[in-house]
Amino acid sequence: MASPSKTLQRNRKMGMGRKKFNMDPKKGIQFLVEQELLRHTAEDIARFLYKGEGLNKTAIGDYLGERQFLWSFRLPGEAQKIDRMMEAFAQRYCLCNPGVFTCT
User: Does pTM surpass 0.70?
Assistant: First the structure.
C-alpha cells in the first residue's frame, strides 16, 4: 500500500494531467504517460477517458476526433454522405459491442 504522501503526490500529478488534458489533450496524455500514471495503451487511455473525472467533454471529443484512424481516410464534403457513413459505423459498432449502451 502506498504511503499517504505518495498518494497525495500521485493525486496532484493526476490533477495536473487532467488540467493539461483539458488545455491540450495530446500533451495531457503525454504528461500522464511520462509520469507513469497512465500506460500508453488503448485500454488505459480508454479507461481514463471513460472515467472522465475532471475532464472537459469537448477536450475528450477533440482527442478522439484527432486519432490516427481519422487520418487514414478523407471524409466526403457532403453532409448526407457523412451521415450515411456515420450511421454505418454506428450500426457496426453496436453489433460488435453489444451491451455497451443500455436501453432506458
Answer: no
